[in-house]
Each structure stands twice: as C-alpha cells, then as structure tokens.
Amino acid sequence: MTDRLREIFSAEQIAQRVRELAEQISRDYHDKPLVIVGVLKGAFIFLADLVRELSIEPTIEFVRLSSYGLKKESNGEVEMILDVKNSLEGKHVLVVEDIVDTGLSIKSLSHRWAEVGLASLRVCTLLDKPARRKTDIEADYVGFSIDDLFVVGFGLDWAEKYRHLHGIYVVEFDADE
Ligand SMILES: O=P(O)(O)OC[C@H]1O[C@H](OP(=O)(O)OP(=O)(O)O)[C@H](O)[C@@H]1O
Ligand code: HPA
Ligand SMILES: [Mg+2]
C-alpha cells in the first residue's frame, strides 16, 4: 500500500524558520557556553541545519530515546538507548528535538538531569503539537506549532520511513491502520 503524503512545510519554509531560531538562540547564549543535546533519531536533520546557522560555538552531544517504535502513539515509556558520554553538570543545556508531542520524552530527560545539576535547561523543537500534551512541558524555541496530525519528513519517521524527505508531510492513513 502507498501512503498518501500531504506537504505542510516546504524545505524553503523550514530553512527560513531554522535561520530565525538560530538567530534567537545565538543572541540568548552569546555570553555563555552552550551544550546542545540532540535527541536521536528524529532531530538529526534539524540539529545539523540549526547548528550551522548559529553565530556562537556550541558543543554537541546526543542522546537516543525511543517510545514510538513502529506505532503512531507513544507507548508512554521512554527508553534511553544512548546517553551522553560527558557529564552535563554545571552546563547550559539546550535540548534539540524534532517534535514535542505528549512531552514524555522531554519530561524523562528533565527528570534524569534534575539530579545532575545543570546550570540551565531549555528546549528547542522544530515542531510542537500542544493538543496532545500529557505533561507540563513547554518548549522555549518552537519552529512551527501544528494541529493533532501525524507528520513525517525532515528527520521524522513513521515506522522508520520518510526521515529523508526535505519537507514535512502529514500522513493520511487508511482507517484500518
Ligand atoms: O513528546 P513525545 O510524545 O515524547 O514525542 C516526541 C518524541 O517522539 C519521537 O521519537 P521516537 O520515539 O519516534 O524515536 P525516533 O526519534 O528514533 O523516531 C520524536 O522524535 C521525539 O523524540
Ligand atoms: O507526528 C509525529 N511524527 C513522527 N514522530 C512523532 N513522534 C511524536 N509525534 C510524531
Ligand atoms: Mg519515531
């Protein structure tokens, strides 16, 4: 079966928004060292574009979380598959996500890091889906706010497909999926 994809943000629209976010972040962190922590896998394209637009020099780490697997719904349990190697104690951390949906992934990171003692923690996400939130998490930098729709492309997958697409698309599923 071929999935139907409907574009909601083009590569050009995303690039413009990424430049604006990078400007804002560069301004906010011009006087403090920044550690960017990308959340794999979804954030890999957004992070790569974002860091190349910054006018500051961040260090970059990654964690890998997973809760959606092959499904369209979070299973409610966020698994950490890869942790940062270097301690984040005393660091100004900006988490970079492709999407904040229920907020459970970000919540699990903030819980985990509460004991580490960061200097500060902020969240930058390309997409925000506030209608589905199950936690009190708010992102500090948001590319686009979207309705309650399952989206793919620009790093985001459905069952590991479509991460490579240049734009962002709504997947129009058949009723039985
Ligand atoms: O706010 P939440 O409901 O927690 O959803 C957001 C998270 O879910 C997705 O990751 P996923 O578990 O699909 O892993 P992936 O990035 O490897 O695709 C997405 O990339 C975010 O990290
Ligand atoms: O809409 C989405 N698309 C892909 N992955 C996701 N993870 C949470 N929400 C989404
Ligand atoms: Mg996924």
Automatic annotation (TrEMBL):
Q: Does the keyword S-adenosyl-L-methionine apply?
A: no
Give the location in the cell: Cytoplasm
Broadest EC class assigned to this enzyme:
transferase
The biological processes this protein is annotated with in GO are:
GMP salvage; guanine salvage; hypoxanthine metabolic process; IMP salvage; purine ribonucleoside salvage
Which Gene3D superfamilies does the record associate with it?
3.40.50.2020
Catalyzed reactions: IMP + diphosphate = hypoxanthine + 5-phospho-alpha-D-ribose 1-diphosphate; GMP + diphosphate = guanine + 5-phospho-alpha-D-ribose 1-diphosphate
Q: Does the keyword Zinc apply?
A: no
Cite the EC number.
2.4.2.8
Query: Which InterPro entries does the entry link to?
Result: HGPRT, Hxn_phspho_trans, PRTase-like, PRTase_dom
| Protein family per UniProt | Belongs to the purine/pyrimidine phosphoribosyltransferase family.
Entry's PANTHER family? HYPOXANTHINE PHOSPHORIBOSYLTRANSFERASE (PTHR43340:SF1), HYPOXANTHINE-GUANINE PHOSPHORIBOSYLTRANSFERASE (PTHR43340)
NCBIfam families tied to this protein? HGPRTase
Listed name of the protein: Hypoxanthine phosphoribosyltransferase
Organism of derivation: Kolteria novifilia
